């Protein structure tokens, strides 16, 4: 619903551009729904299309708002200040076009320009299709192998650029020049007391939720057993007249609904206690073949992320929600802090930005002819930063715009989304907290614990681990077959592909018996003091699961083939 392609022409709109944009829009629609007719706007030198449009995508003349924002003046006018919100903006008038990202880049905008056209889109594929050519960016290869993502700033096509978090790009339509402005992402120190910090953060949260409203005939709240969606539920519940109208959903393995401490189990009980509507969707029941499941996952997300565990049903949940008239979901993405890390290596692991050289089975990746992995300077720990400040800056500057935004893309062909906990005002308050209040999201959790009713939190996930989905006989056979394809051989060395396919494992069910060494390891993990565990683990290199690695190679091959058509 927010697959958007927006084009400014320097002189006049090209002939057949309207028809071309319509065809591209149809190609971007999910293949398991009958999508709404594309909305195409054409005026002066501007042409844009919204794929599978709904009322939750806001437009005004030549401007588009994805998400929600607070603006004292008109939001659609370029250069007007945005006071709060979680959004991506494309706004234009006769003189200029401006694209804007929020404080954490929660919605990704890609852009391309030459002497004749300026293109902005939420879809890399849309831009490539409009250009009719593809220039593969091999810089994404090591990042996909080590993280399952495209990395911090890269796109599949080397000509495309990603608008960074807390940035804007301005096109002067007369001179046809681009000007990019990026706000520094910093965590300034504050002398506030704990009580004062708590008050400032709570005020920011309350202020944001006073400015958002949801029609629960169109919007639903995905509910897990965690603090983020619990906070959203309680904050929204206090602002609506009839909480019984609030609709929530949870998804995961069918058995999870009955397991105490599980996301699904806890979410159901939270819904019961608060009197809201709730529905559970099992994701381990699918009539789709492995080929269809992988095709739909990769094409819906354009290969930006490898987190397939919640989509083993072949996007049946999202098809059902769309057909039931759901137009938007309220996601609990947040940036209140992250987990304790004992070393810089652990920081990279926890944030999903570890390098190939950080993994024992990818350390020698260069010998296979894989391009050298580029690590931007801004992602390095600065001299003035503690490890925990660096960790949380990377969460805002890398993980949210790279990982979380990619996870959003998977669903955005079916529904719109709102992420109120990523609003600018809340993020600004978080960045003034001292490290210890952000670590493990301590202050945010204390705020949520004050909400009523007090209910248990989940200790385990309702979905299956990715490696469990990727180690079935049919899935492994499919992935191994691709490793031998001509397209695979054109991208990777035969030695690398053979190694990847050979190391992949097929699930043996419950037939594996733990060895004495395994049993002793489990006992150590259970009873050893935490400081010893941290010391041992701090610099021990992990290995990428072999089936996940083969899937990542598959994603690269698939996207290269798809975009080359």
Q: What are the main properties of this structure?
A:
alpha+beta; 565 residues; single chain; 2 domains; Asparagine synthase (Glutamine-hydrolysing); six-stranded antiparallel β-sheet; Rossmann-like_a/b/a_fold; Ntn_hydrolases_N; Rossmann fold
Instruction: Give the low-confidence spans.
Output: none
Helix content: 25-40%
Instruction: Give the C-level CATH assignment of the largest domain.
Output: Alpha Beta
Count of individual domains: 2
Strand order of the largest sheet: 2-3-1-9-8-10
What gross morphology would you assign? globular
CATH superfamily of the largest domain: HUPs
Q: What fraction strand?
A: 15-25%
Query: What does the largest sheet look like?
Result: 6 strands, antiparallel
Discrete helix count: 20
CATH architecture verdict of the largest domain: 3-Layer(aba) Sandwich
Intertermini distance: 24 Å
CATH T-level topology of the largest domain: Rossmann fold
What structural class do helix, strand and pairing data support? alpha+beta
Task: Round the mean pLDDT to the nearest integer and report it.
Answer: 93
Query: How many distinct beta strands?
Result: 17
Protein name: Asparagine synthase (Glutamine-hydrolysing)
InterPro entries: Ntn_hydrolases_N (IPR029055), Rossmann-like_a/b/a_fold (IPR014729)
């Amino acid at each position: 619903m927010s697959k958007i392609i927006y084009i400014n022409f320097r002189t006049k709109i090209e002939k057949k551009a309207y028809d071309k944009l319509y065809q591209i829009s149809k190609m971007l629609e999910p293949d398991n729904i009958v999508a709404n007719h594309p909305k195409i706007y054409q005026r002066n030198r501007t042409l844009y299309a919204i794929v599978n449009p709904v009322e939750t995508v806001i437009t005004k003349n030549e401007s588009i708002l994805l998400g929600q924002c607070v603006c004292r003046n008109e939001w659609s006018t370029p250069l007007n200040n945005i006071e709060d919100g979680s959004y991506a903006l494309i706004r234009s008038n006769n003189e200029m076009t401006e694209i804007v990202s929020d404080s954490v880049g929660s919605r990704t905008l890609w852009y391309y320009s030459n002497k004749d056209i300026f293109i902005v889109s939420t879809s890399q594929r849309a831009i490539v299709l409009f250009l009719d050519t593809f220039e593969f960016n091999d810089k994404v290869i090591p990042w996909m192998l080590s993280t399952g993502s495209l990395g911090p700033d890269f796109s599949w096509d080397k000509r495309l650029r990603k608008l960074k978090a807390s940035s804007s790009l301005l096109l002067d339509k007369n001179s046809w020049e681009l000007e990019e402005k990026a706000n520094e992402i910093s965590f300034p120190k504050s002398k506030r007391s704990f009580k004062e910090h708590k008050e400032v953060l709570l005020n920011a949260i309350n202020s944001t939720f006073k400015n958002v409203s949801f029609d629960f005939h169109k919007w639903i709240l995905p509910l897990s057993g965690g603090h983020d969606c619990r906070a959203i539920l309680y904050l929204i519940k206090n602002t609506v007249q009839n909480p019984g109208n609030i609709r929530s959903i949870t998804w995961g393995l069918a058995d999870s609904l009955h397991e105490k401490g599980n996301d699904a189990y806890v979410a159901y009980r939270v819904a019961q206690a608060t009197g809201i509507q709730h529905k559970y969707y099992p994701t381990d029941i699918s009539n789709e073949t492995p080929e269809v499941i992988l095709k739909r996952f990769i094409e819906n997300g354009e290969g930006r992320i490898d987190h397939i565990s919640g989509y083993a049903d072949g996007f049946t949940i999202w098809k059902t929600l769309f057909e039931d008239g759901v137009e938007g979901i309220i996601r609990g993405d947040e940036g209140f802090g992250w987990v304790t890390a004992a070393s810089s290596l652990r920081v990279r692991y926890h944030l999903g930005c570890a390098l190939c050289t950080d993994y024992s089975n990818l350390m020698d990746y260069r010998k296979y002819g894989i391009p050298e992995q580029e690590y931007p300077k801004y992602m390095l720990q600065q001299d003035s930063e503690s490890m925990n400040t660096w960790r949380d800056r990377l969460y805002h500057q890398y993980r949210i715009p790279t990982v979380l935004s990619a996870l959003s893309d998977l669903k955005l062909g079916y529904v719109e989304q709102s992420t109120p906990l990523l609003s600018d005002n809340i993020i600004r308050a978080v960045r003034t907290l001292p490290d210890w209040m952000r670590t493990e999201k301590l202050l945010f959790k204390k705020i949520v614990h004050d909400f009523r009713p007090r209910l248990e939190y989940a200790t385990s996930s309702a979905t299956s681990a990715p490696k469990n989905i990727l180690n079935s006989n049919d899935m492994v056979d499919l992935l191994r077959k691709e490793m031998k394809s001509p397209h695979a051989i054109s991208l990777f060395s035969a030695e690398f592909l053979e190694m990847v396919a050979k190391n992949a494992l097929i699930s043996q069910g419950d037939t594996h018996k733990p060895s004495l060494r395994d049993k002793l390891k489990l006992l150590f993990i259970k009873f050893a003091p935490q400081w010893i565990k941290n010391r041992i683990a701090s610099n021990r290199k992990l290995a990428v699961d072999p089936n996940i690695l083969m899937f990542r190679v598959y994603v690269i091959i698939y996207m290269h083939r798809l975009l080359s058509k």
